[in-house]
Amino acid sequence: MALVLNEDQEMLRDAARGFLRRRSPVSELRRVRDEQVEGGFSRDIWREMAEQGFAGVLVSEEYGGSGFGHVAAGLIANEMGRTLAPSPFLSSAVLGAAALGRAGTDGQKGEYLPGIAGGELITAMAVDEGDKHKPEHVTLKAEKSGNGFKLTGAKTFVADGGAADLLIVSARTAGADEDQQGVTLFLVPADATGVTINTTPTVDNRNYADITLDGVEVDGDAVLGEVDNGFVLLESVLNAGRSVLAAEMEGLAKESFDMTVDYLKTRKQFGKIIGTFQGLQHRAAHLWTELELVESAVLKALQTLDENFDGAGAIAALAKAKAGSVARLATQEAIQMHGGIGMTDEHDIGFYMKRARAADELFGDADFHAGRIAMLRGY
Amino acid sequence: MALVLNEDQEMLRDAARGFLRRRSPVSELRRVRDEQVEGGFSRDIWREMAEQGFAGVLVSEEYGGSGFGHVAAGLIANEMGRTLAPSPFLSSAVLGAAALGRAGTDGQKGEYLPGIAGGELITAMAVDEGDKHKPEHVTLKAEKSGNGFKLTGAKTFVADGGAADLLIVSARTAGADEDQQGVTLFLVPADATGVTINTTPTVDNRNYADITLDGVEVDGDAVLGEVDNGFVLLESVLNAGRSVLAAEMEGLAKESFDMTVDYLKTRKQFGKIIGTFQGLQHRAAHLWTELELVESAVLKALQTLDENFDGAGAIAALAKAKAGSVARLATQEAIQMHGGIGMTDEHDIGFYMKRARAADELFGDADFHAGRIAMLRGY
Amino acid sequence: MPDLEKFREEAREWLEANCPESIRKPVSGEDDIVWGGRNWVFKSDDQKIWLDRMAERGWTVPEWPKEYGGGGLSKEEAKVLKQEMARIKAPPPVNSFGIWMLGPALLKFGSEEQKREHLPPICRGEIRWAQGYSEPGAGSDLAALQTRADDKGDHYIVNGQKVWTSYADECDKIFCLVRTDPSAPKHEGISFLLIDMDQPGVTTKPIRLISGKSPFCETFFDDATAPKENLVGELNKGWTIAKYLLTHERAMIGGMDSSQVLGRSPGEIAADTVGRNSEGELADSFLRSDIARSDVDGWAFMLTMERYRDKSKAGEGVGAASSGLKYYGTELNKRRYELSMSASGFNALKIGDGIDSEEGEMARRWLRTKANSIEGGTSEVQLNIISKRILELPDA
Amino acid sequence: MPDLEKFREEAREWLEANCPESIRKPVSGEDDIVWGGRNWVFKSDDQKIWLDRMAERGWTVPEWPKEYGGGGLSKEEAKVLKQEMARIKAPPPVNSFGIWMLGPALLKFGSEEQKREHLPPICRGEIRWAQGYSEPGAGSDLAALQTRADDKGDHYIVNGQKVWTSYADECDKIFCLVRTDPSAPKHEGISFLLIDMDQPGVTTKPIRLISGKSPFCETFFDDATAPKENLVGELNKGWTIAKYLLTHERAMIGGMDSSQVLGRSPGEIAADTVGRNSEGELADSFLRSDIARSDVDGWAFMLTMERYRDKSKAGEGVGAASSGLKYYGTELNKRRYELSMSASGFNALKIGDGIDSEEGEMARRWLRTKANSIEGGTSEVQLNIISKRILELPDA
Questions:
Q1: pTM of the prediction?
Q2: Domain spanning C2-95: which superfamily?
């Protein structure tokens, strides 16, 4: 596949851009923060997004989605990055839809996918247990119990955990704490008895939760995919999430870069437009080249997911690594180049730096993924 | 001790600078290279350096030296770095003098130190066996044999190994390959039966050798320090060498920086002095701050050696780490800022980059020493 | 120096007798810091007792001359006093921009009358000063300031706006750079003026930062007045004083110890989150190498501060090199906090409800460090200064 | 496209029949590279046979028009031919600056006569061309060139000096930028001129680099002559051609594959020298993290080249973005070689006796990479181009 967008994709991008700039500019994130909107996003706007087709982009037409695929999902995420639109797109429309679409039984698909595509059902992936992403570290226990399982343990930093109706939880059904074998994915309703969800406000003003499961009973239908063999599924679903999150970081990095270049063209210091200072010009030009690399890696990752979902591990790592490090650099440079005004809460640019850091950390930071590439290359 | 030079030290530095600029400017290194001078330096100039007091700076007056100490040795090395003066100063006047002065018996001192101080006897430390510095990796075996020992094994990258009269060799008398315990230092005449010395020309045009010991017989007097307990001695001697080598790197980095700043003030491009371009100004200014840090770390390391020789491990690591990384950066920037002319062999600036890399690698590169500091700090 | 040891004994004895037990503890939050001034409310009686006793002895500003309320101590004695205070964990009795900034400026540039009027209340913590340098339109180009002070015979009328005025909403007075000759070249029409905050023409508005609540304010002058005798130094020569104080401020900002982050080093934080491998090294190669390199630079930076101090003591000026400290120190501090955030992982991203929450100390400090390389002259300005004054590279 | 598959079959058949067995191997040294020209000595008869057969078919320059000696193939066919040649390890029959640089310039800017005269000998490897752009005083400011060509009626007289003229001492002719109107603004008095090397007024002198012997020469023009018909394009409009070729050259230099260093990746090299820990990771945290980050950037860079190629194919121009490739690719290459040197340790420092030795391949290549970010426009020049043409930041 040529590493460029086709016309349909460009149209989709333009439509998403228009919608998001109108309905969810940065002021919407600010509002959500200042008004402490429950769940971290506006349900109304999410429903409108669903009407735009965002929520069903990875859901097949059979279940009410468009099945446009991962490149399309990435384009939407990219535009969401540009306006920092708060929504459960990643958790529900990407991770939830990918997990169920990939491994769900017909029954599970029929039960959940239409809700996801319609924006009524929100899912969240409960993966991590420590302070750094490490998906094979699973101590949350799932013990056989009657026809089903009993789940006990805790998850941390669950994106959109505070807004989710359905949790997708990695649990240990066999093996030692860090074994890949013995991990099983479960579908757990957020309102099941024994589930406690504590939302944790974060720098990016999005919605994360620490979740405790205290002897939560689920029946056999709650297993997503195969018992004990859930890790490969988990990884391939996470890779979709990582790639789309990389696309979001690409968007936010580019937007903060564009804002900064615009600022360089207008701000005067010492009687000169600061964009004439070569010290800043060279840093901006370097950043531009880095952003070009991010675009290439992200697009390749998204295309690979559409072509060969399970083979996208390395390229997803590349996209997440490159987008994460460049988004952090771009937003830090943006603050520095804006000077004092960039430090004020009144200006939007700070929101970009905050989101860049949280998004980099989520599902493995740039170093985590560079390390994965190192392992794949044998060092 | 105040972290500044006193008047005596400033006088010594000025004298060394005057002598070296006159007798061993960069053209001398070029001559040594082009004429493939044996041993990698001029014996005549080394004798003159000895007359200047360079060779005996760490040898006590009792044995014919001045005993000026490590700050003084560092100042000399710094000036040698500025002119890239080829000499066995580090190997003989620093490492050899420190090892014998520290651990030699009265007999050993009397036999060797006057020769070192006079510049007639040249020593070399044979430490490494692999491609990266790792002093505890000692497989060269020393087996008891009669009254003495029989040494078998190989050493690599021995600085001044091709010019040395006396080798100081780390050998294994007990323990496993990487144990610190069980290492013993031996004094081995370079012309002993079974010693094979192959000089290996290197990028910095200094003199290194791969050395093989094939059943070399030495008697008990050849042991320097205690049997099996030589590693601590070796490390403290190396720390002196590393600190002085850091001082040399400080000197070469500063000289290449000065040459570059001068070039920026004269070279014109696009009708302007290139030193007016802010892109280059900021990089030069950044380098200047890095060089200030190098100066502080190096001076502190040298002062510490004079105050508490055996306690200088961490600060020597700091000096070598900081000087190594900054010397590499400074010389690379020097080439880039000189442009095409800097790439020609005709210009001196390339010699600085070559020496910076070899000096960084010798006795542990910047990363090796940053890693030591990490270990000392518990990570 | 037996005299110095004698002084140490006396100081120790006096401090033991006079520093209230309740405040002998490390400063751990806003409540432990005394700023003074007319609006000040002490958090405890002992805070006030401690301030009054120290002020009476002149030890709130130990090196200032006795006639202005200082202690008249030598540098060495002041250092001993500091050590003895640290020994018993006695906090500074009062902090203020009056002590750090205005005092040194008045001692160097003020008239005898100004010193007698303004310094004693600073020493006693009675008057709290704000600093009015920056303006919204000026930024790094401080001298582009627009706030004007028009000559009205025996007083000035001040109009304009200052920004980044720390604690201006709680201060009694403000020292300002104002434009007194709009027609002169920009560096030559600036004066240094003292203005009462307690007048109708002066209003303030707090600034919220990306890190949340901040001490910074905008300060507006709308026909505010200041008597002629409040002009410090010569008319239109205020830039000289500004430069003097900027160098002073740079050394302060750059010199902050950045080796620890909330009491722990990044290496310690990372050991908890990512663990160690069988060699005892951090299990994450990336964090390990980045932290080690930053520790190398941090240590070498601290030694550089030590070396500059020793140079100063030896009578060599440091001059423009303070720009190097400011640049390197603030960039290093940002790097440290980035590493600490990465080492902490998810936990450090938590910040509490609402932008002004007290929770999320790590994240708030991380965000706050981003201003270090902007305030007191941006990193770019420091590099320009080094380039011009130290390297003597030519102007474009 | 069945036509393309048919072409593939034909090409494969022809190559099998016509490529001598002895030269079907990877290019491993200077002896495997054919440059052609009057002075050329083939290293084997098969090299000559291969060149002649390919030239006859026009496949030394498959995409050039048939009437000038090319193969007249489409882009797609040329790609297939390249794949089929790679399949049997057939080397390029001839390399030359004539093929890479002059040919494209003549095809775009040359007259019909010039094309007919100069292109066929390039295709047949009969005439070897050098490039004469840079001058000692000009450097990055290429347009500051001083070499003059004075109009003498039916010919020009050329005086001046060029530098970085690759292989000029072995070439037959040289294409040069010369100043034809000294009074015009510097970009407007330059012409593109073809000059015979084989005349008394032209002499060359090899340049030794920090990495040792190099193909570069200085070339001196001392009353050299060139007939008027050797002027390419319009008089005083040579800068247009220069810019066209520079963009071309930038893409070539920046696009070098830098993922391998002497056939091994830095990660593989390091695994040999520093070993692995119990997790299978490189035992050295520093090398591991640096190499991994460089691998990330290297892979993303290769994808960017792929993306730009696909963009071009889709009809979108890449334009000034080639400056980005040039900048990033050469800086990356330097970084790769620094890492490979560090990974190799002592062994890579060995360089053999004498500056011109053949030994020490790793060190010599490492040193040579330092020129990558200088030749073809320095990194700083590329950043300027991006800043101005892509970001549209204003001039100072």
A1: 0.91
A2: Acyl-CoA dehydrogenase/oxidase, N-terminal domain (1.10.540.10)
